[in-house]
Specification:
The structure is a single chain. The chain contains four helices and no strands. The protein has helices spanning about 5-30, 35-60, 65-90, 100-115. The chain is elongated, with a radius of gyration of 15 Å. The two termini are about 15 Å apart. About 40% of the residues are buried. Keywords: Membrane, Transmembrane, Transmembrane helix.
């Protein structure tokens, strides 16, 4: 069994969790005051990356870089959204530069998808 086939269920899991969190965070942002923009940004990242992970899981057999892209997107989204949510509800972020680190990880995840265009499996 190829690595991509074994990691696809993980991407399905995080697609569902990010979709769930994204909708919940959107509701919290709509009804929250103060720093609701932090929660709204976390929601946007979760909702943007949930379908991307779903697509990577579905196409894992065709895209050689699917595993790398998915891992970067999962870790990046967890760091970025987690840092913003922690900052809003706990008063401090996860660790210094967690959100930018997550942002860069997500960006490189998308870049890995682009690179996959040149290394796809037929």
């Amino acid at each position: 069994m190829m690595l991509n086939a074994r990691i696809a269920p993980l991407f399905y899991l995080f697609a569902g969790l990010f979709g769930f969190a994204g909708v919940g965070l959107a509701a919290a942002a709509a009804h929250g005051g103060g720093d609701a923009h932090l929660v709204a940004s976390a929601s946007a990242m979760c909702l943007a990356h949930a379908p991307a992970l779903l697509a990577l899981a579905i196409g894992a057999e065709k895209l050689r870089t699917a595993w790398l892209a998915g891992i970067l997107i999962v870790v990046g989204t967890l760091l970025f959204a987690g840092d913003l949510v922690a900052l809003r509800y706990l008063g401090s972020g996860l660790f210094p530069l967690a959100a930018p680190t997550g942002g860069f990880a997500m960006m490189f995840g998308w870049l890995a998808i682009a690179v996959g265009a040149f290394t796809r499996r037929d």
